[in-house]
Amino acid sequence: MNIVVLDGYGANPGDLSWDGLQEFGNLTVYPRTSREETIERAKDAEIVFTNKVVLDAEILAALPRLKYVGVLATGYNVVDVEAAHRKGIIVTNIPAYSTDSVAQTTFALLFTITNRVEHYAQQNRNGRWSGSPDFCYWDTPLNEVAGKTIGIVGLGHIGMRVATIARQFGMDVFALTSKNSADLPEGIQKTTLEGLLAVSDILTLHCPLTDSTREMINKETLAKMKPGAILINTGRGPLVNEQDVADALADGHLAAYGADVMCSEPPQADNPLLMHPNAFITPHVAWATKEARERLMAIAVANVKAFVEGHPQNVV
Fold first, then answer.
1. Is 215 one of the catalytic residues?
2. How far apart are alpha carbons 215 and 244 in whole angstroms?
């Protein structure tokens, strides 16, 4: 059986092993694959893994030997699932592997904003503290999160973990969720989007990208947020209109934006958020802790094993 990984570098830049997949056949791992290279590289494969390489109907039609597509991520919009199903191709994803990592990054972004640790560390590298006339100094606002209201859009695995952590920090938790209020843990209050915008000191996005959530944060919804609120996005870049966010930062209505995702990745060099002093952008690494990637690789292997044994799991 021929197994091809089209873009293995993102999940495994060399610090993990592909040995688990080699047990099932002849394995070829490419660090990156362009669209033009995809068919040639995958034409003899029964099993193909992709992270961000698009496998649309046109490409799937050109791969007659293909029986299985493994997406090395939770989101699977890079694969035309309907076209795959028509051809009898099994498509699987990797669910819930990065819950702890993304929740951790959510708070890393929040605390970057409230405590400006990197700012002060850099100032001290430049000698500011050693040259200070006082035992301490600060030149940014410093704020506690205890007693603040956090609004969470989406209570899946990650959103629920964020809610749990927030409660431990003494925050009031409100959520926009499809779950019934009676099914929510104590301390999480369900509300509408309008309600969430009105009460949140911090608004954090953890919902899927759908037609109804695309650019849910825009000029109109930003205007309904509390003046001086903080916006965090570790979900999907297009959940926000980036120009509208930049404008809200520029006029001071939004205090800060912390994001691990952007509408295009990599972003354009002239994206207005990249250089804004109150925008804190990380390069889509919330999922990429070694521990999370080890879980991802283990689930990928388990998915192939289940497929080979005739009872596929995590099928989308």
1. no
2. 10
Read off φ and ψ for residue 28, nearest 5 degrees. Answer: -125, 125
236 is catalytic: yes
Instruction: Name the pTM for this structure.
Output: 0.93
Per-residue pLDDT tens, the chain, 316 aa: give them. 999 999 999 999 999 999 999 999 999 999 999 999 999 999 999 999 999 999 999 999 999 999 999 999 998 989 999 999 999 999 999 999 999 999 999 999 999 999 999 999 999 999 999 999 999 999 999 999 999 999 999 999 999 999 999 999 999 999 999 999 999 999 999 999 999 999 999 999 999 999 999 999 999 999 999 999 999 999 999 999 999 999 999 999 999 999 999 999 999 999 999 999 999 999 999 999 999 999 999 999 999 999 999 999 999 9
Task: Please pick, among 118, 220, 265, 291, the residue that the annotation labels catalytic.
Answer: 265
- Considering 236, 242, 293, 295, which one is annotated as catalytic? 236
HSE value, Cβ hemisphere, 13 Å, CA-based, for 151:
20
Which residue in 119, 276, 284, 294 is the catalytic one?
Answer: 284
Which strand (E) or helix (H) includes residue 96? none
Tally the residues of the chain: 316
Find out whether 145 and 170 touch, Cβ atoms under 8 Å: yes
Catalytic-residue membership of 242: no
| SS3 of 216-278 | CECHHHHHCCCCCEEEEECCCHHHECHHHHHHHHHCCCEEEEEECCCCCCCCCCCCCCCCCCC
